[in-house]
Amino acid sequence: MFGKGIFKGLKITIGHLFEKKVTQQYPEERPVLPARFKGSFDLNVAKCIACGLCSNACPNHVIKIESVKDENNKKKLTGYKMLAEQCLYCGFCVEVCPTKALQWNHDYERAKFFRDEVNLDLYAKYTPSPDDDKKDIPEKNVKPEEKQDESAKAS
Amino acid sequence: MLKTQELTLNMGPQHPSTHGVFRCVLKLEGEYIRECVNHTGYLHRGLEKLAEARTYSQFIPYNGRLDYVSGMLNELSYVQTVEKLMGITEEIPERAQYLRIILGELQRLASHAIYVGTFALDMAGFTPFMYAFRDRDRMLDLIEAASGQRLMPNYMRIGGVAADLDEEWFKELEILMNDMPACIDEYDGILTGNEIMRARTIGVAPVSAEMALSYGFTGPNLRASGFDYDLRRDEPYGIYDRFKFDVPVRKDGDTYDRYCIRVAEMRESVKIIKQAMKDIPEGPIMAKVPKVIKPPVGEAFHRIENSKGHLGFHIVSDGSTKPYRTRIYSPCFVNLGFLPTTAKGLHLMDLVVALASIDIVLGEVDR
Amino acid sequence: MEIFNTIANGLRDWLMGSLGFSATATEIITTAVWTLVAILFVMINLIILVWMERKLAAYFQLRRGPNRLGPAGFLQFPVDIVKVLGKEDIIPANADRFIFKIASTCAFITSLTAFAVIPFSEGVALLQNLNIGIFYFIAVGSTATLSLLMGGWSSNNKYSLLGGMRTVAQMISYEIPMVFSLLGVVMIAGSLNLTDIVNAQKNTWFVIPQLIAFIVFFIAATAELNRGPFDLAEGEQELVAGYMTEYSGIRWAIYMIAEYGNLVASSAIISIMFLGGWNAPFGLTFIPPFLWLMLKIYLVIFVFMWIRWTLPRIRIDHLMHFGWKFLIPVSLANILVTGIGVYVYRMITL
Asked: Which parts of chain A sit beneath pLDDT 50?
């Protein structure tokens, strides 16, 4: 019969009229982010060995590292800048980091008023924490996984 | 006799329904099209050249920028081409193979959901569009949980996948897959059976099987014209030969058939994911590949059944860490070629529907 | 509605008695006051309608709709109007400036004049006992075509022109079944006066004997109102915004106001002609007649919106076929059947 399909469609839409809505009320309701969510970057400067692997792995040459050699001929980080304007957020730098110094965080509100503010200065942003002095290698390896577990539980 | 004049209408690049920045110049007689000329290139970013300036693995994230609604499948195609070039196709671990299939099909579902939504939207059916996007969002949530990003996943790696997925993820996937048939029935109810929609699509812009072949149609568009050819079944890549699924084929090749093929394929994708979820083994997710990828001198071409058609990569290696040449065979660009021929005599309103029915994504058309 | 008449009579007495105006002046001032009331009525309805449209569209689509300003986003539209007033008045370079400027206002005036004959209750109307009420409504309503064509033509934009042309084709075609379907009602009621028509529906609403006419009128009215699935004149997907493409700011807003004004007027006519006007069904007379009419109007508007947010747009040639090959024959047949029915009824009763 002509009009059957139209009435079926009308039935479907009226069925949804009083259904629970699916949209999130963003500023009040925060999205539940998965553990692997790629937001912004955090750099643990104490862990960083300034090896430059991240800067090499980057497809767009986003990461600029400055380092000096100390008396033991060991590299020490003195500057770590990310040109986030050009960043693809592919995460190769995080994947390649041998000491897990570079990590993703869940900061997704990255819109800024001025263009310069978009770029990240991870060296300046870093605030030292008491955990930095612990040089135990096993703990370093355990830590990122723990962090992931915690955030997985939270989500 | 009144003096009549052709009306030249510039449609695009800023137009609500050219799916991005596609532009066509139309010569109209009343509202009927006498001539249509395609203009592409407004979204050209030089991705093929970018590939030459990057190492093999560094190009993987750029695949999400190709066809930005089916990033996972583009990555799969690229990664498999590089694996073919290196000769390690057989060494990919089982679990990685299954994860690739699951996420690829999930992405195909998401891409087809966009198709159904935008197809409805181009006929001013805004509500089906929202329903399709409601389901697509759940798929993207899963992709986000797997890879960290919704549209540009960067999940496939040369030799495997980036991350393993836990039980929780598979539980979520199972819930979604159990919900999907009802959701697809809903699209059917609101759109497929609708008399207005049928009147606007049946018999509009038909493409015969011969024409489809001569214009290089691939994928769902080709199958809508009655040519039964699906790479997943006929030239199985990965482990597609282990799954049982039907390849929907229709015969008229008009816009309605092209739409129906997509809806039918969504049901098949759900079937494939359910099978893969059942069979997935435990194990490693990465093959042993060197950190610096240096394929031997030579070249490789590989194509997969993307959501839009056959997406192929032709990579020429000169033995260094960067490809000598990367060529992207884009299904959207090839499919778009039918428009000037088919548009002749169409009504302006039908042109929009015809354009929507071949499912173009300008990121891939212009590369 | 007694209170309106009391107010009107009180106003008349006050003007004539206390202020000493002549009878003509009193009549003019009273009419002006009525006109203001009509404008106010349209505006209040408009705020509710725009809110309702947005909310309903959102709810059908599993969204929440406006919910930031005021209770449940109710103040969104007044704030939108303020925003629109602050916008630059853009007139395209080669536009026909005079016609471009007056086009949207014309649309608004036509939608407003239609309210003159609509009785909101027994004897509450601007032109109270106009004995050609429905004829006046049709005549005024059909001029709305012109203002849309003016907008489409004067913009000097190809999309606008195509939209304007579509409007003319569509509106002229759907005017005919619309009038024909009303003829059946007029034949039964035996009057063109809207108050008489409502009074004739005391026992049975005309939707029952005139179901076919009701459906035909509803479809034709959807087309007349440029609402989905017949919103070809706007045709966003192919014509960007049709005749409104070049309009922005307050001129665009006036077009929208006119559109919603027409929606109220057409829904009111449907309620009056087919749904018994202010007559209360099932003897539920404790609700005042004015509210009954508003309830019916909003029910009809809800159905309009429900259809709009479900169906895709029809193609223009299908629209023409549907209008000329289906609606007109059906409405003509309806007139024939109604005529025979009325004749037979009179034969029996007399």
From this structure: 136-155
Check residue C204 and report its DSSP letter: S
Distance CA C323, CA C270 (A): 19
Q: Percent of chain C having pLDDT more than 90? A: 0
Q: At what angle do helices B255-279 and B94-121 cross, to 10 degrees?
A: 150
Determine the Cα–Cα distance for residues B198 and B201; give it in Å rounded to an integer: 5
Tokens read off for B283: 């194990």
pLDDT value of residue C122: 67
Distance from CA of A24 to the nearest CA of C (A): 9
Q: Which residues of chain B are modeled with pLDDT < 50?
A: none
The two tokens of residue C49 are 């309608």
Could you check whether the bond before residue C229 is cis, i.e. omega within 30 degrees of 0? yes
**Burial state string for A54-93 with b = 16 or more CB within 10 A and e = fewer than 16:** bbebbbbebbebebeeeeeeebebeebbbebeebbbbbbb
Instruction: Give the length of chain A.
Output: 155
The SS3 of residue C124 is strand
- Strands laid side by side in the A63-69 sheet: A63-69, A75-82, A120-121
Q: Chain C within 8 Å of A19 (Cβ-Cβ)?
A: yes
Residues C149, C169: Cα–Cα separation, whole Å: 10
Instruction: Judge: A23–C59 Cβ closer than 8 Å, yes or no.
Output: no
The pTM assigned to this predicted structure is: 0.84
From chain A, the residues in CB contact with B131 under 8 A are: 16
Assigned token pair, C71: 């209770």
The CA distance from C283 to B40, in Å, is 67
Which two three-digit tokens encode residue C145?
A: 């075509």
DSSP character at residue C327:
I
How far apart CA B268 and CA B246 sit, in angstroms, is 7
Residue of C nearest to A15 (CA): C60
Residue length of chain B? 367
How far C59 CA sits from the closest chain A CA (Å)?
Answer: 5
The residue type found at C190 is G
For residue B230, which amino acid is it? D
Considering only CA atoms, give the Rg of chain A.
23
Whether the CA torsion B348, B349, B352, B353 is positive or negative: it is negative
- In this structure, the dihedral spanned by the alpha carbons of residues B222, B227, B228 and B233, taken in order and rounded to 10 degrees, is -50
The residues pairing with B313 across neighbouring beta strands, listed in sequence order, are B302, B328
Distance, first Cα to last Cα, chain C: 35
Q: What's the pLDDT score for residue C230? A: 83
Residues of B in contact with C162 (CB under 8 A): 31, 348
Q: In angstroms, rounded to a whole number, what is the distance separating the alpha carbons of residues B156 and C302?
A: 49
Task: Please give the pLDDT value at position C124.
Answer: 61
Closest CA to B349 of B29, B3, B31, B45: B31
3-state secondary structure of B347: strand
State the DSSP H helix or E strand holding residue B267, giving kind and residue range, or none if neither.
helix B255-279
Q: How many helices (H) and strands (E) does chain A have?
A: 6, 5
CB atoms C312 and B120 under 8 Å: yes
Chain B residues close to C166, C-beta within 8 Å: 31
- Write the Ramachandran bin of A129: left for phi over 0, alpha for psi from -120 to 50, otherwise beta: beta
Q: Long-range CB contacts (< 8 A, 24+ apart) of A62-67?
A: A62/A86, A62/A87, A62/A88, A63/A93
CB atoms within 10 A of CB B139: 21
Check residue B286 and report its DSSP letter.
B
DSSP-based three-state secondary structure for C92 = coil
Which residue's entry shows tokens 């009343």?
B30
3-state secondary structure of A36: coil
Residue C126 has pLDDT above 70, yes or no: no
Helices C249-273 and C76-85 cross at an angle (nearest 10°) of 140
Chain length of chain C: 350
C-alpha R_g of chain C:
21
Residue A56 corresponds to which tokens in the numbers above? 């090499």
